[in-house]
């Protein structure tokens, strides 16, 4: 299991969704109305060193669901200006620099580990009262790819526009297949499963 992510009862300025809407509108994979985006759910990973926060959002504009993993840092990540989503003020942790996760080496290392070890997302620990709850998204790594080889320098392919179709003949990665990070979640429309990340 990927450990336990500490969740603070904190005030954020701007809010996470506000920050994401402003950034997503400029991304090549998004051509909708960012004002319609709402959070569906999210899951987390844990930095073994306890320095970098990692959270992956599923947001929807009512027609499509988008997968947006980010990292939170207490200082700027050198050389990653192009991947900066923005900054926010956290009432407990102070200023946080938010980055598009595939550009952050801590995220890349952790998502590769989760996939390789067939691990899961982190549980959530409410810091104020010590309550631990399971991840709202049932995430599972599919194990190493078919060859067992992995290019540690290659960035993982984050699936941005979520598709629940699982058709190998359409050249889509199969849910739960080797080299993938897949997830299952619930919303008002029922249960959904999809591939989130593919690693080489």
TrEMBL record:
Keywords, comma-separated and alphabetical: ATP-binding, Kinase, Nucleotide-binding, Transferase
Coiled coil: none
Maltokinase N-terminal cap domain boundaries: 23-104
Annotated signal peptide: none
Pfam families linked: Mak_N_cap
Stretch list, region Disordered: 131-153, 165-186
NCBIfam families: CG0192_rel
Protein's recorded name: Maltokinase N-terminal cap domain-containing protein
Lineage: Bacteria, Bacillati, Actinomycetota, Actinomycetes, Mycobacteriales
């Amino acid at each position: 299991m990927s450990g336990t992510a500490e969740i603070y009862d904190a005030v954020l300025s701007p809010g996470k969704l506000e920050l994401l809407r402003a950034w997503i509108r400029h991304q090549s994979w998004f051509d909708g109305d960012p004002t319609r985006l709402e959070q569906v759910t999210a899951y987390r990973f844990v930095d073994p060193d306890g320095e970098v926060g990692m959270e992956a959002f599923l947001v929807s504009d009512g027609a499509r669901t988008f997968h947006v993993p980010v990292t939170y840092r207490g200082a700027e990540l050198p050389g990653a200006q192009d991947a900066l989503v923005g900054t926010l003020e956290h009432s407990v942790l102070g200023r946080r620099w938010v980055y598009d996760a595939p550009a952050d080496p801590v995220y890349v290392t952790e998502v590769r580990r989760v996939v390789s070890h067939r691990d899961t997302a982190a549980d959530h620990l409410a810091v104020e009262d010590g309550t631990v709850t399971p991840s709202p998204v049932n995430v599972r790594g599919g194990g190493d790819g078919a060859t067992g080889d992995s290019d540690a320098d290659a960035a993982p392919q984050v699936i941005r526009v979520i598709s629940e179709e699982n058709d190998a003949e359409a050249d889509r990665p199969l849910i739960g297949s080797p080299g993938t990070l897949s997830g299952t979640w619930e919303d008002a429309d029922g249960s959904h499963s999809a591939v989130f990340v593919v690693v080489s």
